[in-house]
Amino acid sequence: MKVLVPIKRVVDYNVKVRVKADNSGVDLANVKMAMNPFCEIAVEEAVRLKEKGVVTEIIAVTVGSKAAQEQLRTAMALGADRSILVETDQEDVQPLAVAKVLKALVEKESPDLVILGKQAIDGDNSQTGQMLAALTGMPQGTFASEVVVADGKVNVTREVDGGLQTVALDLPAVVTTDLRLNEPRYASLPNIMKAKKKPLETVAPGDLGVDLASSTKTLKVEPPAERQAGIKVASVEELVDKLKNEAKVI
Amino acid sequence: MGILVYAEHDNAALNPATLNVVAAAKAIGGDITVLVAGEGCGAVAEAAAKVDGVSKVLCADNAAYGHQLAENIAELVAEVGKDYSHVLASATTTGKNFMPRVAALLDVEQVSDIIGVESADTFKRPIYAGNAIATVQNSDSIKVITVRGTAFDAVPAEGGSASVEACDVAKDLGKSSFVGEELAKSDRPDLAAADIVISGGRGMQNGDNFEILYKVADKLGAAVGASRAAVDAGFVPNDMQVGQTGKIVAPQLYIAVGISGAIQHLAGMKDSKVIVAINKDEEAPIFGVADYGLVADLFDAVPELEKQI
Ligand SMILES: Cc1cc2nc3c(=O)[nH]c(=O)nc-3n(C[C@H](O)[C@H](O)[C@H](O)COP(=O)(O)OP(=O)(O)OC[C@H]3O[C@@H](n4cnc5c(N)ncnc54)[C@H](O)[C@@H]3O)c2cc1C
Ligand SMILES: Nc1ncnc2c1ncn2[C@@H]1O[C@H](COP(=O)(O)O)[C@@H](O)[C@H]1O
Q: Is residue A247 included in any domain, yes or no?
């Protein structure tokens, strides 16, 4: 069976971003970029399914600038067989538009499973997988911490607020990954070299019949309210006293 | 037109998160209808009818909605939501699960996790783990929105007297089914609703050591949370994770024990009113947001704290 893995190039999770002085957005100049951590988990899950013999082909795809080729190469070094760059210079492509692009690719490639991250850590939207599932009429297993494919179905254990929930989905299905689904491997040097030769196809959104225009406009971006650093207390006694008599919270 | 609020519940009781969503709906302004979808959820509909500011409750009682399967709920909410200017749900795992599906079915974008209402079409929301706050304007005819509960003060659960109407829209996509669940059982307050939260991190060393936090929590009536490192290491279950990709909390008092203060953790707790940090490393970034920092070994400080409160 075939798996499609949509991945996103984002600011590395260790970077603390700064808002631009003109409040137009965050400053991404000279900032380290990486594959969204949840997408790494998605790639890893697909690779494990391939290693188990469940999956035969893994296709990584991204909607982004030419620079995102780097993340597609990483995905192929981790085990994706080929990849597709849907190239655009538009920043901030919204999840609905990404989902429409992915829908067009699903129609073309007919994957049995689409594995996405549960959220991209730049926009923190957590929408794309669910939207793709709706547009294609597929069932969805979001925030997955376990994925088991058997008998034409996929059982997904989901991390929900109260604990864990397991659902059974008909294939084809959409899965979005949570942090504990797996621990992604590192790409080995030989695999990084091999990935350079794997096919990377570039298409334009228009070729897929999708318009990336958005109905959501960012008017401004501001830094969050700064918290004043407080004081250090010398003992538990002083702490309890402050909480009781100064902050009055206990 | 008007605003449709999706009620969160377990078929027996209304989840208090819904009261924060109604507060956001009030800030937008307009008639508020609450949709209760579930199986045997009549009591929830009755409770929703009493919520302050609600003018109508729609109750869709159907086996297909019993486990809140996103496929079926989204079809229902999209069908009912067509007649409203705004559709709102809480940014809990339930709301996050089905709402983007609703938006896609309506062919509109979703505004996720709003923390402020500027006007009927303009909202504030955190991006980059809360390191930036974006003001966004959405021009879609129906605004599909999830609401961060901690950013809106809950409306009173009593005081309203809305009518309850049965909603007979029956939707079953038939492609998914509920297999089972393992829900955490605890007598302590819910993380999202507690006035005091005490959380442990990797510094706790193992799950058994969380016992010292539970003792403090029980004296204070607090909920217990954790960092991702503590959850990943298997000390405690996933539903205790606080942070960018876990739960967002904003209690009156947050006590971080053996937690370094990574940006992903701060994203989930830095709007707490008072923050206490107990950490043996005086350079730990958590002290940068703490009102009261105690540099100490937690295994000495926490039992001592328990004695003194
Ligand atoms: C995509 C992504 C999403 C993430 N989402 C989240 C999230 O939602 N929530 C979250 O919390 N993290 C999240 N993380 C992880 C985050 O980056 C940090 O790794 C994590 O928060 C660290 O947890 P910690 O502070 O418990 O552990 P550490 O950073 O290891 O800190 C342990 C602290 O304990 C102190 N300590 C040790 N022993 C003692 C002692 N005896 N007494 C006192 N102090 C002691 C140490 O000084 C240290 O400061 C995410 C990461 C990624 C990549
Ligand atoms: N531009 C993109 N290209 C490919 N996949 C994406 C893109 N944006 C989001 N995704 C996928 O959707 C997931 C959730 O993203 P979001 O809905 O933006 O939080 C990501 O982890 C990716 O798997």
A: no
